[in-house]
Amino acid sequence: xxxVLLAGATGYLGGxxxxxxxxxxxxxRALARRPEALASAGVPADDIVKAEVTEPASLAGxxxxxxxxxxxxxxxxxxxxxxxxxxxxxxxxNLLAEAQRAGVRRFVYVSVLQGEQMRDLKxxxxxxxxxxxxxxSGMNACVIRxxxxxxxxxxxxxxxxxxxxxxxxxxxxxxxxxDGADLAVVCAxxxxxxxxxxxxxxxxxxxxxxxxxxxxxxxxxxxxxTHLPDGVRRLVLWAVRTFAPGxxxxxIEFFLTVMAREMVAPLYGRRTLRSHFEALKRDSSAN
Length: 287
Hints:
Layout: E1 3-7, H1 12-23, E2 27-32, H2 35-40, E3 47-50, E4 68-71, H3 84-102, E5 106-110, H4 122-136, E6 141-146, H5 154-161, E7 165-168, E8 174-175, H6 180-189, E9 197-200, E10 206-207, H7 208-219, E11 225-228, H8 230-243, H9 246-258, H10 273-286
Parallel strand pairs: 1-2, 1-4, 2-3, 4-5, 5-6, 6-9, 7-11
Antiparallel strand pairs: 8-10
């Protein structure tokens, strides 16, 4: 039986991966800074190692007896005074070093779509530095490059609930975000494939206008979409980079940059964004 070490199990994608690995009957060891968080979130694991990935000593032995490492480790919202280089780069380097010491046969890392083209962003630069070192390490590795998650699209539904969705430019840029459960299948498939890189998006390519329209349709409201000149986006991006503290600027500059790019990846999965919006609407009505 394949034995998997999952780092980032308490995160959105990590939880989905844990469930997919369990569905396939694989043995899973999960890394967690707070093991109790795995239990409270219902994340399945055969073994749990309490560790802080930014502290190499806490990882000692975590890869012993492991065949494959999957890591989704990265900062979504900066906290604890840690930088992208501390987490997205160095923490994953710590894991890689332990995997090499233990003789792990494959290493799967979840990065970001088009990250190599956005290295001017701190988050992408840290991720791509790790990708560079992973490839140079000689490890049998696969880099997963997903498009945005459905969970990121909740902001659009939130704006629609307020009566208006604001977009930069003409709203014609396309993307195909992916559900976490569908992406988990892609990550699990990479355990046994020969792929060294997989680009993954959801099953539907939609313009930003179509995504906003879907949100209004689910809410049963007439669509009200306002298109702001792209110059406004560039001005906000400059202001964020110039004046915002590092703890908040990273996620905002990433969002503002991605909103001005075509973000289309090969199609995977079966879950639609509309069904995700409908689930969010049901959850909101139940609370």
